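EI: anyone free to look at a 119-residue chain?
SC: sure, send it
EI:
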Amino acid sequence: MKELVCIVCPRGCRLQVDEEKDWAVTGNACPRGAVYGKEELTAPTRVVTTTAAVEGAVHSRCPVKTSAPIPKALVRQAVASLDGLVLQAPVKLGQVVLADVCGCGVDFVACREMPRLEK
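SC: here you go
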């Protein structure tokens, strides 16, 4: 029996997941908690948030995130894939800055407008 705190909503239900009973979940207040409990123990995923370098803008770093969750095992590799990437201003909100991260069909997208710095 594994115990987890559900992070799907602000409630923070304390889940118990029984691996021996086909991943049966108890302690959840909603159906989403049951899905989260099973997925967290069988195939955990995460949305990755980080920054990428940008030139020609007021700020030197642009916040980025994955467009969807990726397997937890690929998080370090996904962040490392941004090493050496330098965006050129202007950067638009939602712009794909790196496509198909780690071959899993998910993109890194910009989370902030980064207008070109006028000289």
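EI: The helical segments are 31-42, 75-80.
SC: 👍
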